[in-house]
Amino acid sequence: MRGMVSVTRFAPSPTGRLHLGHALSAVRAHDLARAGGGRFLLRIEDIDGTRSRPEHVETILRDLAWLGLEWDELSFQSERLALYAAAQARLGDLLYPCFCTRAAIAASLSAPHGPVAAYPGTCRSLSAQARAARIHEPHGWRIDIARAVDRVGPLDWRDDQAGTIAADPLRHGDVILARKDAPASYHLAVTVDDAAQGVTDVVRGRDLFEATHVHRLLQALLRLPTPLYHHHPLIVGGDGQRLAKRHGAPALAAMREAGEDGHALADALRRNMLPAGFRLGEA
Ligand code: GLU
Fold first, then answer.
1. Are residues 25 and 42 in the same domain?
2. 12 lines ligand 1 (CB under 6 A)
3. Closest to 228 (Cα-Cα) out of 202, 190, 248, 192
4. Based on the domain organization, do 90 and 56 belong to the same domain?
């Protein structure tokens, strides 16, 4: 049962500098917690050792302080790998080793923004003998999503905008849940942490709406509670293109260094007012 007090989190991946979209997520998550005397957690999602950088963590902390947002707890996913490994073990025979390209496996460590191409299932049909012969090769672990869905039956979750959503994890195919050198994936780590940290309300961009289908399934398999979801519209530029840190959107750090007022920016975002040239995209 949901308690009276909201626990929210802002969960950036330190793979680049934060932009306006991150500021919107952080402000909304922060304010939702503060409105009910709850707790606002900052969780650094740094399980992707090849792309995460300590200097980005420092910049994130400065950006949030500049926006006037104070967090109650700071955690690092890289320090919580044992929890993800334990969850992986609990999923047991629903997982199978996948020897397909490292690039495909690496991609799964970050948040899968946008449409996901479902895995064709190549390694699902390997014989036990073929698996044993190759198990010393680098591999990830995929979940047999059809069997998992069969096991738990129909599921739904609540989104504050979209209402009750029937979970449809099959559309993602057999997602990667762990790999040998990083015993976690975005999906597994987020699901485990949101439950372990008592998060009651997940506030994040609309681009992660689809991922919730998988998170809901994992919650059921691991017997974890389901938070309420708040997927907010993405911020888009004048051309309607959404901001992505890799496409040259203005970084919060650049605005901060240029002497702009972060508290004023946070207040403007609270009123859904955006700097010139930007607007909220479709819900
Ligand atoms: N770490 C993810 C990102 O940077 C967000 C995770 C989440 O909010 O579920 O996009």
1. yes
2. yes
3. 202
4. no
